[in-house]
Design goal:
The protein has helices at 2-24, 29-68, 80-100. With 102 residues, it is mostly helical. It has one domain. α2 crosses α3. The protein is elongated, with a radius of gyration of 20 Å. The protein starts with a helix and ends with a helix.
Amino acid sequence: MDGLFILLLVGLTSVGAYWVGAKGFGLSGRGLRRAVERVLECVGMMLVFLVGNLAAGIVAILAARAVTQQFVSLYLIDDETLVILSLLQGFAFQCWRDASAP
């Protein structure tokens, strides 16, 4: 039930944003398609950075275990901050790619 409520809420605000954009600001439907494509590119890049950060963290923890002969927990990388920073890294990298495109 909670998931359905969230989907309905996001659906309604999306329809409202489309209506305001189209009627209020005169934005085109074609521009919306390009915007959605760019968002999906950003999400993909964000996921690439998240997987890369997780992999680097796991490798670093396993190396620390091998070198120090002490137990270092993998839970060190179980932090919301890593997800948020990875999302920012991916977004910044994608914006940089877009700004550098001819």
